[in-house]
Specification:
InterPro entries: Beta-lactam-related, Beta-lactam/transpept-like, Diverse_Enzym_Activities. Strand 2 and strand 3 (44-45) form a beta hairpin. 29% of the residues lie in helices and 15% in strands. It is globular. The protein is built from twelve helices and 16 strands. The strands form five sheets. An eight-stranded antiparallel beta sheet has the order 3-2-1-16-15-14-13-12, sandwiched between helices.
């Protein structure tokens, strides 16, 4: 039993996680560790090919699909998105993100594709603010992952809500990548999953990634595990907050490019390798460099917060859909901590990854650590966070 397996087994045995799968790729070889259970009640062990909801780890994939279209000249970063979505031609901005919905000013300029890719569009989502904008998002857009709205109706609903920041001014994490994905689909005249399949999944050989899990693969899904209010592991029927249905209907049109994908460690490796392995030809070297270079100003980086906590700190920045390490000493582990240019972006359900071009390595951890926000603030589920930190130390040390 190696050090990674020993460490993760300790977290599982302590009842802090149901199960976890990790992968470390270096020098063309992948080392995989599967610990714990994908279904505790049924006695089904976690396996290398277990399939997980990867939440915001979806964002880099959708952003990469956008970059394939950028390098084809389908749009420019400075293009206003109203070119594709006239619904966003005239936006309003809240004076106070927690203030009244009617207390707005006109947007200084239009939202651009650069704004979407860098999370500077002024968009938020339900659960991020306590004011009226929170309820307005829930009412206008429905559940985060499985909205019953058509893509066009969802776009119109989002465009009808005020922004929480001026376009380009601040890093405001929210529905930007969801909107980006639907705009790519509109430009291609095809559902988002078809766009991703054509532009990313098939070229990279990602056979287990999509917005739902086919019936013949459902036995491989990792169960959803969170905690009851006493801190005991508990199997959940679906994700926290009712963001998704237990089973996604086959006829559902909306797809969340920001958080809706399922995947495996091997599929995500196929994606992440493009940042460290020049034999992966999805994006040109110039496009990769553009994607992985920090685009935030220092005030935008240092002022960015998520649930009241710094998003980046002093050593990390954000490019076009991925975080990037600027200072190896102070970069955030959760955003990717390695040599300069290490990229990554985690997922709310416990997924984490990074790709370090300075040593050609990729590290991936997938788990279902499903927490309600109030549980996290109460200190439940911190074992999952600790597992990421320990895995990072062992995988990169």
């Amino acid at each position: 039993m190696d050090a990674i397996e020993t460490a993760l087994k300790g977290v599982v045995d302590a009842g802090e996680l149901a199960g976890v799968v990790t992968l470390v790729w270096r020098g063309g070889e992948a080392r995989v560790c599967a610990v714990g259970w994908r279904d505790i009640e049924a006695g089904l062990p976690m396996q290398r090919d277990s399939i997980f909801r990867i939440a915001s780890m979806s964002k880099p994939i959708v952003s990469a699909a956008a970059m394939t279209m950028l390098q084809e000249g389908r749009f420019a970063l400075e293009d206003p998105i109203s070119r594709v979505a006239p619904e966003f031609l005239r936006m309003r901005v809240l004076r106070d993100p927690d203030g009244a919905l009617e207390d707005t000013v006109p947007a200084d300029r239009q939202i651009t594709f650069d704004d979407l890719l860098t999370q500077r569009a002024g968009l938020t989502q339900a659960g991020f603010y306590s004011g009226p904008i929170d309820a307005a998002h829930r009412e206008a857009l429905g559940p985060d992952l499985d909205s019953p709205l058509s893509p066009d109706a969802w776009i119109a609903g989002l465009a009808g809500l005020p922004l929480i920041g001026q376009p380009g001014a601040v890093f405001t994490y929210g529905r930007a990548t969801d909107l980006l994905g639907l705009l790519l689909a509109r430009m291609e005249g095809a559902p988002l999953e078809e766009v991703l399949r054509h532009r990313v999944f098939e070229p990279l050989g990602m056979t287990d990634t999509g917005f739902s899990v086919p019936s013949e693969k459902r036995h491989r899904r990792a169960g959803f595990y969170g905690f009851d209010m006493t801190g005991q592991l508990k199997k959940l029927p679906t994700v926290p907050g009712g963001a998704a249905l237990a089973e996604r209907p086959d006829d559902m049109e909306f797809a969340s490019g920001g958080a809706g994908l399922w995947s495996t460690v091997d599929d995500y490796l196929a994606f992440a390798r493009m940042f460290v392995d020049s034999s992966v030809k999805l994006l040109s070297p110039e496009t990769l460099a553009l994607m992985t270079t920090n685009r935030l100003t220092d005030p935008q980086r240092l002022g960015a917060k998520m649930f009241g906590m710094p998003t980046f700190g002093t050593g990390s920045g954000f490019g076009l859909g991925v975080a990037t390490a600027l200072d190896p000493a102070t970069a955030s582990v959760m955003r990717g901590k390695g040599g300069v240019g290490t990229v990554g972006w985690p997922g709310a359900y416990g997924g984490w990854w990074q790709a370090d071009p300075t040593n050609g390595s990729v590290a991936i951890l997938l788990m279902h650590n499903m927490l309600e926000l109030e549980q996290l603030t109460a200190g439940y589920g911190l074992g999952g966070y600790g597992a990421i930190l320990e895995f990072h130390a062992l995988a990169t040390g």
